[in-house]
Amino acid sequence: MEMGWIDAATNPQGIREIFGEDIPPLVGVSLHEVTVGRDGPTLRLRLDLPTYPASPPVKWKRGGFNAVQVELLFGGLTDLSLRGISTNMLVDVHIETDGGLTLQVKSETVNMAAVAASVTISRIEAYLDSERESASVEDVRDQL
Q: H or E element: which one contains 19?
């Protein structure tokens, strides 16, 4: 059985609490930001998950949010290659562990590969994405 991205993370608890058994795959995700830091060195990916949780936290329900954004921090980065860029990057992210950790980020316009020691979920946020369908005010009230 192929390991999911969440199994590679050092701290999967937050995502598991929010999504339960329905952890979304990192396929067709919107990549917002790539940051490389010399301390570590590190690589940060900020991306929107492709689905919203069926039972989001109450704070998210009250906010009428419809998108979840995570930041993945890859520590102990030893190799990185990046080719291509776009203003609207819908990518597939593959994380594999086999003695180390390898990352591949691919789309028609972007191809990134990296080798790191670990991946940590450094941030989980919800927000209202005006381009996605959102719950109506009545739906939000019904869920509270």
A: helix 13-19
What per-residue confidence (pLDDT) applies to 140?
Answer: 41
Task: Give the list of residues 6+ apart from residue 25 with CB closer than 8 angstroms, or none.
Answer: 4, 5, 50
pTM of the model: 0.87
Other C-beta atoms closer than 10 Å to the C-beta of 21 total 5
pLDDT in tens, 95-138: 999 878 999 999 999 999 999 999 999 999 999 998 886 544 34
Nearest CA to 6 among 23, 31, 22? Answer: 23
Two structure tokens written together for 112: 């990134």
Contact predicate 10/120, CB 8 Å? yes
Distances from the Cα of 126 to the Cαs of 23, 80, 118, in angstroms?
Answer: 15, 29, 24
Please report, rounded to a whole number, the percentage of residues in the chain having pLDDT higher than 90.
81
Average pLDDT, the chain: 90
Three-state secondary structure call for residue 66: coil
Strands of 111-116's sheet, edge to edge?
79-83, 111-116, 101-106, 89-97, 29-37, 42-48, 67-75, 118-127
